Amino acid sequence: MSTIAPSTQTRRHSAGWGVGAGLFFSVVVFVPAVFVVRQWLDLAEVSATPSHLRARPVEVPASYWVTWFVAVVVLLAPAVALAGWFVMRRVAVGYVVTAGLVAVALAALTIGFELGGFAPS
Fold first, then answer.
1. What is the pTM of this model?
2. Domain enclosing residue 91, as ranges
3. Would you say residue 73 lies in a domain?
4. From the CB of residue 34, how many other CB atoms can be counted at a distance below 10 Å?
5. Residue 2 maps to a domain
6. What is the pLDDT along the chain (121 residues), one digit of tens a residue?
7. Residue 68 within a domain
């Protein structure tokens, strides 16, 4: 039995809030933001033609990979701020796990479509 009165206990927030926020930001904001940043920086478009139908292999510039990496870092940055606040650590863990996994999966899917092509063969 706890000797601390319920009104003085620190209320911890559930990881569910972090999971929900992670899903929202990684699905609704992450991939569209990468495309907007790539257009804003005037990066070369990657051809949608399937790789086996291309005359020569696609040369992917380093800036393509940098935009994906920076986008993941920016996506996970709020978790660092939340982790510093004790009552929000569960939310931060839920956010970083969910946003990280979903962002990596979406990035891999998008990169696969862009580099391998997605037009019917």
1. 0.76
2. 13-53+62-116
3. yes
4. 22
5. no
6. 555 545 444 456 788 888 999 999 999 988 898 889 888 988 777 766 776 777 777 777 888 888 899 999 999 998 888 888 888 888 889 999 999 999 999 999 988 888 877 766 5
7. yes
